[in-house]
Each structure stands twice: as C-alpha cells, then as structure tokens.
C-alpha cells in the first residue's frame, strides 16, 4: 500500500497479515488505526509515517512481528506504536528511527510490551523515552502492564524506559538498554512499580 492508511474502527477479530505500508496518508497522523477487540496486525512493514505507525486502541489487540521505521516526522506526541485501552500487546517488533518515542502508553491497562527491538529514537524531540508513560490513568493505574525482554539502543541524550510522573503499577524486567543518556527514569508520584533484572550498558545515569 502506498499513500494509504488502514482503519479498523468498528472491528473485532480481524487480522492484517504481511502488508507493506509506506508513506501512509496523513489521516490525523494515524497510519494504521486499530480499535475494537481481538484484532491483529502482524508480519507487516510500516514506514515513513508523519505521525503514529500504529495507533492501538480498544481491547486485546495485537501488533506482532512488524518492522516499523521512520515514524513521527512531525516530532510531536506520536510513536511507532501508540496505545491505550485494555490488554493490548506489542510484541516481537523491530522499530527504528522515530521523531519521538517508539511506544507511547499513557492510558493503557494490562498492556504487554515485550521482545521488541528499538533503536535511534528522539530524533526531533526532547524529554522522552523509547517507551514513555505519564499520569495515573484516572487513578486506575496501568493494572500490571509489562515492559519486558526488550532491547533498546541509541537513544543518545534521551531516556530508554521512562515512567513519568504518577505512572503506577508497571512491571519492568529483563530489558537490555544501551547507549542512552539515562537507561530508566521513574519520576515523582509513581507508585507500586516493580523494576528488576534489567541490564543497563554504558549509561551516564541509571
């Protein structure tokens, strides 16, 4: 697909498999938008996006084994995958070259961000992480959302994993983070976050 976008808004249990999506149309900066429940995009190539590569809302939706790169050329609050909702999964993806973050997860609950490779983010912005969350989600917290088994490299003067103010109830474990200014940040007001068995390589601050 060239200069087009995908919307799965009122959709349940649908699968997008082995698609090639480049220079998607600027539809509110959302190249592939998935809502509903039980939907999957997998084994796909998504590149050269002005905003999000994938916008993942709804419940129990999945982005798996995709290559997503050169996203968020606006440099605003977009990402390779931006997610909210409940039980969504971002797994086994390769993501590189992002204007800001690779995974934004402000209003998510029971998310799994696992076994992803992320490299060279924060090209156009400041104060960010390869993965980034902010706020307590209307006092509901993330309800055990997991960031695990990811490889995060080359964020340079930015942060690898960033739980900004009031982020709560996250499990962060078995990640490898290298060549970032700061491997991990947990800012004020964050509670009940479990962080263990991570490896930080060559960081100035951890």
Sheet with the most strands?
Answer: 14 strands, parallel
Structural class: mainly beta
Unreliable parts? none
Report the total helices: 0
Helix content: under 10%
What's the alpha carbon Rg, rounded to whole Å?
15 Å
Q: Which strand-content bin applies to the residues?
A: over 45%
The total strand number stands at 24
- Write down the overall geometry: globular
Q: Average the pLDDT over all residues and give the rounded result.
A: 92
Q: Could you give the distance between the termini?
A: 42 Å
- The H/E string reads EEEEEEEEEEEEEEEEEEEEEEEE
Features:
single chain; 14-stranded parallel β-sheet; mainly beta; 206 residues
Describe what you observe in this structure:
This protein is mostly beta strands. It has no helices and 24 strands. It has strands spanning 6-8, 15-17, 20-22, 30-34, 40-42, 45-49, 52-56, 62-64, 67-71, 79-83, 85-86, 89-91, 94-98, 101-104, 108-109, 112-114, 117-119, 129-133, 146-148, 151-163, 171-173, 176-186, 194-196, 199-201. The strands form 3 sheets. Strands 1, 3, 4, 6, 7, 9, 10, 13, 14, 17, 18, 20, 22 and 24 form a 14-stranded parallel β-sheet that branches. Strands 2-5-8-12-16-19-21-23 form an 8-stranded parallel β-sheet, with no helix packed on it. The protein is globular. The model has no long low-confidence stretch (mean pLDDT 92).
Task: Give a quick rundown of the structure.
The chain has strands spanning 6-8, 15-17, 20-22, 30-34, 40-42, 45-49, 52-56, 62-64, 67-71, 79-83, 85-86, 89-91, 94-98, 101-104, 108-109, 112-114, 117-119, 129-133, 146-148, 151-163, 171-173, 176-186, 194-196, 199-201. The protein has 206 residues and is mainly β.
């Amino acid at each position: 697909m060239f200069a087009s976008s995908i919307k799965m808004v009122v959709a349940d249990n649908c699968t997008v498999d082995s698609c090639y999506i480049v220079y998607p149309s600027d539809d509110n900066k959302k190249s592939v938008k998935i809502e509903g429940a039980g939907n999957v995009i997998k084994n796909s190539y998504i590149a050269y996006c002005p905003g999000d590569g994938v916008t993942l809302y709804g419940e129990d939706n999945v982005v798996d084994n995709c290559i997503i790169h050169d996203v968020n050329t606006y440099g605003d609050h977009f990402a390779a995958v931006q997610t909210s909702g409940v039980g969504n999964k971002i797994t086994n993806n390769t993501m590189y070259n992002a204007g800001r973050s690779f995974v934004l997860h402000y209003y998510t609950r029971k998310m799994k961000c696992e076994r992803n490779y992320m490299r060279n983010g924060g090209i156009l912005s400041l104060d960010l992480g390869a993965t980034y969350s902010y706020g307590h989600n209307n006092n509901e917290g993330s309800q055990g959302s997991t960031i695990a088994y990811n490889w995060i490299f080359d964020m340079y003067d930015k942060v690898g994993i960033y739980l900004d103010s009031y982020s709560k109830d996250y499990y962060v474990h078995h990640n490898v983070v290298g060549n970032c200014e700061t491997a991990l940040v947990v800012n004020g007001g964050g509670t009940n976050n479990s962080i263990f068995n991570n490896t930080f390589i060559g960081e100035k601050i951890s």
